[in-house]
């Protein structure tokens, strides 16, 4: 109580720069390119600590956040790894989850911020900065002591001490080297480049990609740069192959890589090893699906989810094994080892992967997915008799068969229906993955890296957004 006046005076002094207190996502990735020691954050990233203190005093989330410290890897040109401590991940996850797990990754990656500058961000884009914190007072806080593990034995670290001038020099060097490569030129082509409206996420991409993939040539980056260019300039024309195809709603395309060549609604399953592996192991996969059902029944835990409102309204639920390409925490993967191994043999994309069930006399309404870098594979697990369950992609209609795969391009409009009149549900194993038939391994790895960073960036922005509401 003796310090109330001092605290109020300090808050008044900081009031004009209140927005600068909030966590800036750009700092998360600026810090990733620096070397830290003993889990100490560089001064430019002290704002998360301040935010945590404020959250501690206004919410009951302290113990949740304290128990969710994890480390982020940063990749430098030599391939070495450095770490920073991130203590807000759980709270960010809570803020960014929605009824549609794919929202984080499927939403258009626009270059322009949708919120006012410094307002903590909106629609996945953030601003703000940071202010320094009094080190003496900082050491007295029990919360900060816990977050920094000050009560735990210190481990000897070989990391170098953070030096701001060295960080600035490193970032400038990376920026200079990457500015002239295809990714750097694509970013600089944005109409918002070097303006306050430019999303800092994309400003950092050329440097981060160059440092993460130093051996990738400019030629290998050409189509990825095309994706970046279309993302930052949504008005750029698409290729004629899409524009002139009445079955591919080009106005719904939100993630586009040019140069992938012609495609068709349904592709040959025999051209993909994934489909062959699934069909070969159908009996095992079907048994593993039944084991998962038995596990849910014995534990009285329903793991099926309607991952979008469209799915819920249309009687489609998913037993999700992978979400945004990641495993599900606490999922009983030991009950489905073969299914899991096969699914992880392909570069899973940022949507769902799991067992889809369609109730009788229901179907998914006509729609299209706006990402031309992804394909969908579905294998029949339990299929109604008499070809009652069907899927139309473009102008072609096909029926699922147990143990057989359908491989299709979801940029075409598509719909499904289970017309069973005997109460039979339709179950398929559903896998979304990057188009290994058209994209190179380097392109896929870079795109997965971009999507991963985008997800982490938006989580960080979620913390800033919540902080803006609380403060």
Question: How would you describe this protein?
Answer:
The chain is α+β, with helices and mostly antiparallel strands and 471 residues long. The protein has helices at 4-14, 18-21, 25-32, 47-58, 62-66, 89-96, 103-106, 135-140, 142-147, 164-178, 182-188, 200-212, 222-232, 240-243, 273-280, 282-299, 309-313, 337-343, 441-470, and strands at residues 70-75, 81-86, 266-267, 304-305, 316-323, 326-327, 348-358, 374-382, 389-393, 396-399, 405-408, 414-418, 426-434. The strands form 3 sheets. Strands 3, 4, 5, 6, 7, 8, 11 and 13 form an 8-stranded antiparallel sheet that branches. Strand 9 (389-393) and strand 10 (396-399) form a beta hairpin. Helix 11 (182-188) runs antiparallel to helix 12 (200-212). Mean pLDDT is 73; it is low at 14-108 and 113-151.
Outline: globular
Low-confidence stretches: 14-108, 113-151
Distance between the termini: 21 Å
Percent of residues in beta strands: 15-25%
What is the share of helical residues? 25-40%
- Derived from helix and strand composition plus strand pairing, the structural class reads alpha+beta
Number of strands: 13
Largest sheet: 8 strands, antiparallel
Round the mean pLDDT to the nearest integer and report it: 73
Rg calc: 24 Å
- Helix count? 19
């Amino acid at each position: 109580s003796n310090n109330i006046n001092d605290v109020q005076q300090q808050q008044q002094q900081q009031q004009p720069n209140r927005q600068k207190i909030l966590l800036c996502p750009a700092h998360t990735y600026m810090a990733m390119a620096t070397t830290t020691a003993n889990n100490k954050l560089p001064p430019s990233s002290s704002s998360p600590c301040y935010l945590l203190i404020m959250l501690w005093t206004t919410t009951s989330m302290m113990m949740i956040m304290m128990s969710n410290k994890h480390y982020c890897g940063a990749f430098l040109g030599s391939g070495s790894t450095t770490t920073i401590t991130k203590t807000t991940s759980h709270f960010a996850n809570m803020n960014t989850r929605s009824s549609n797990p794919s929202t984080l990754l499927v939403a258009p990656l626009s270059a322009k911020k949708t919120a006012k500058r410094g307002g903590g961000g909106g629609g996945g884009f953030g601003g703000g900065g940071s202010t320094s914190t009094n080190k003496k007072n900082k050491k007295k806080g029990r919360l900060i002591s816990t977050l920094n593990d000050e009560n735990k034995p210190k481990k000897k670290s070989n990391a170098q001490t953070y030096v701001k001038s060295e960080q600035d020099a490193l970032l400038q060097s990376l920026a200079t080297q990457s500015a002239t490569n295809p990714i750097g030129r694509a970013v600089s082509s944005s109409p918002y480049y070097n303006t306050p409206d430019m999303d800092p996420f994309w400003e950092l991409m050329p440097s981060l990609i160059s440092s993460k993939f130093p051996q990738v040539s400019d030629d290998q980056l050409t189509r990825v740069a095309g994706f970046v260019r279309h993302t930052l300039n949504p008005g750029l024309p698409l290729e004629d192959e899409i524009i002139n195809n009445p079955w591919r709603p080009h106005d719904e395309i939100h993630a586009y890589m040019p140069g992938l060549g012609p495609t068709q609604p349904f592709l040959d399953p025999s051209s993909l090893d994934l489909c062959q592996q699934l069909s070969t192991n159908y009996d095992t996969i079907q048994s593993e699906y039944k084991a998962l059902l038995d596990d849910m029944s014995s534990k009285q835990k329903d793991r099926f989810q309607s991952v979008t409102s469209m799915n819920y309204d249309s009687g489609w639920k998913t037993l999700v094994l992978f979400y945004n390409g990641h495993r599900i925490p606490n999922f009983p993967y030991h009950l489905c080892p073969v299914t899991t191994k096969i699914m992880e043999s392909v570069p899973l994309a940022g949507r769902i992967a799991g067992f889809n069930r369609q109730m009788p006399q229901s179907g998914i309404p006509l729609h299209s997915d706006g990402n031309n870098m992804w394909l969908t594979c579905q294998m029949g697990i339990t299929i109604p008799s008499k070809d009652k369950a069907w899927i139309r992609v473009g102008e072609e209609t096909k029926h699922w068969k147990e143990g057989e795969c359908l491989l299709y391009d979801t940029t075409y409009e598509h719909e499904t229906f289970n017309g069973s009149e005997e109460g039979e549900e339709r179950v398929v194993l559903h896998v979304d993955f990057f188009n290994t038939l058209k994209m190179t391994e380097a392109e896929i790895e870079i795109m997965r890296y971009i999507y991963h960073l985008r997800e982490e960036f938006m989580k960080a922005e979620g913390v800033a957004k919540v902080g803006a509401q609380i403060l």
